[in-house]
Write a structure and sequence with these properties.
The complex is a heterodimer. Chain A is an all-beta fold. Chain A has strands at residues 3-5, 10-14, 19-21, 24-26, 33-39, 46-52, 59-61, 64-69, 74-79, 88-97, 103-107, 111-116. Chain B starts with a strand and ends with a strand. Chain B has strands at residues 4-7, 10-13, 19-25, 32-38, 45-51, 57-58, 67-73, 76-81, 90-97, 105-107, 111-115. In chain B, a hairpin with a 2-residue loop joins strand 7 (67-73) and strand 8 (76-81). The chains are: A mainly beta, B mainly beta. Chain A binds chain B through residues 33, 37, 42-45, 47, 50, 91, 95, 100-105, 107-110, 112, and chain B through 31-32, 34, 41-46, 49, 51, 91, 93, 97, 102-110, 112.
Chain lengths: 117, 116
């Protein structure tokens, strides 16, 4: 069965430190998508990235970077030079293809990141 | 583009009453809409999937008679929590997807339901 594991429940860092959030997934699909979302205290999910299973190139967007390793079924997320505004819960998610061609998202349990000034 | 709204953003009701939550895709027509529930400090759990004009598909363990979903048009889906009880208090989030965006889901801002 599809599964997403975010082993880190909570991480606390001091501003300007780098931090990596881990995500490990399990799937039998050959084609799938992986996502990261940020959920600030307001509750609204903020889309960060989508990665398709055929594209293993790492991606960088400003202070954010993602490392996709198919061999270890991991899709880790690194924030460089963290800021207080990065404090939020971060969810990793995996898409699961269904019979009707729609996709279902399987979410990890989330990692709560606290960046202290 | 790809904006999804939810109304209301929060609601407080008495036990036994029914509450309706609306989810709208504002600038696109959604092929499919999804309803999630999130309890405090927990992850999002998919409750049901709905396609316009057809019955919703509920996830295992979700009571379809309690959580009524109506997907009347390509831009509107509603979730009605019938005879709400305190244990139904949660954060309800909808999302909408469209085929041309490779089925990517666009999330609404969520509705916080408190049942007294």
């Amino acid at each position: 069965a599809q599964k997403v594991t975010q082993a880190q429940t909570e991480i606390s860092v001091v501003e300007k430190e780098d931090v990596t959030l881990d995500c490990v997934y399990e799937t039998r699909d050959t084609t799938y998508y992986l996502f990261w979302y940020k959920q600030p205290p307001s509750g609204e999910l903020v889309f960060l990235i989508r990665r398709n299973s055929f594209d293993e190139q790492n991606e960088i967007s400003g202070r954010y970077s993602w490392n996709f390793q198919k061999s270890t079924s991991s899709f880790n997320f690194t924030i460089t030079a963290s800021q207080v505004v990065d404090s939020a819960v971060y969810f990793c998610a995996l898409s699961e293809a269904r019979m009707d061609s729609s996709y279902k998202l399987i979410f990890g349990s989330g990692t709560r990141l606290l960046v202290r000034p | 583009g790809a904006v999804v709204s939810q109304h209301p953003s929060w609601v407080i009701c008495k036990s036994g009453t029914s509450v309706k939550i609306e989810c709208r895709s504002l600038d696109f027509q959604a092929t499919t809409m999804f309803w999630y529930r999130q309890f405090p400090k927990q992850s999002l759990m998919l409750m049901a999937t709905s396609n316009e004009g057809s019955k919703a598909t509920y996830e295992q363990g979700v009571e379809k008679d309690k959580f009524l979903i109506n997907h009347a048009s390509l831009t509107l889906s509603t979730l009605t929590v019938t005879s709400a009880h305190p244990e139904d208090s949660s954060f309800y989030i909808c999302s909408a997807s469209v085929t041309r965006y490779h089925n990517e889901q666009f999330f609404g801002p969520g509705t916080r339901l408190t049942v007294l």
